[in-house]
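For the sake of transparency, this paper describes our internal protein records without simplification. The record that follows is passed on verbatim for readers who wish to inspect the format:
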Amino acid sequence: MWHGKSFTIITHNLSDENFYIQSCTLNGRSHEVSAISHEAIMHGGELVFEMGNKPNFSYGMSVDDSEYAMCDTLNPIWYPGSGIWHSYVTPIPIHETTTLSAYTQKENGEPSFIIESVFQKIPKNRKIKLHTRYAPQYSAGGDIALIDSKKGGENFKTGTWQGYEGVDLDAVVDLGEVQEVSQISAGFLQDVGSWIFFPVEVQFFTSLDGETFTPAGISNHELSQKDFELRTLEQWIDMNPPVQTRFVWVVAKNPGVCPDWHPGAGNSCWIFVDEISVE
């Protein structure tokens, strides 16, 4: 609330599957641009999003975005492999994992610093089903965070890690079709001072039909729970020879409660995971 005025954001039909914006209204009127001015927020009101399970490619493509522009100059975009800079004029279709670089220019032509963004392509038809739920404050964006090809860094507060309090990670990845698999892995974070521990062990299973699973292996580690250094760990198994599978089941065992020597003794441990990889 600002000077007696409040600004409310509402989402309709939002779920783990419905995370694409279909349409948007601002104070009851259609809002076709994918930005909002600071002035509009300060005046108060209600911004309402209608969500769905497929992208609406026409939303946010309005050419009349001038009132939201950060500057009046063109924003050159680097197209990987083109060898030259191009001025951004129309939306850029991306079909593969791509790194885009961009900079803007001041009125005198002086360039700004260059920023980069990596757009990861998720393998076609790949899905994930979670049998245990993550804590809502550490969702990393939802279920798909574990198969979006982006790995978390060394700080769980950045929102890239998915947190499970007092429960195991129990997830099944559907590859979409039968594939030859030679390695399965999952990444974890340990920040003992924040009650985040590596899992006791990680179990991997494979299946052709999603009903009958065969044990593929168990990954263990020898790192101490008393190690208060911030660490990340990739736990994996190699399958030699490779196996034919469509479904991969991953169970990461939570340590349970913080040990007696820990400041949080007796309270639930957390495990933080990001990215289940199948190769």
Observations:
- The two ends are 49 Å apart (CA to CA).
- Residues 69-74 have pLDDT under 50 and may be disordered.
- The domain at 1-63 is CATH 3.30.2080.10 (GH92 mannosidase fold).
- The first strand starts at residue 7 and ends at 12.
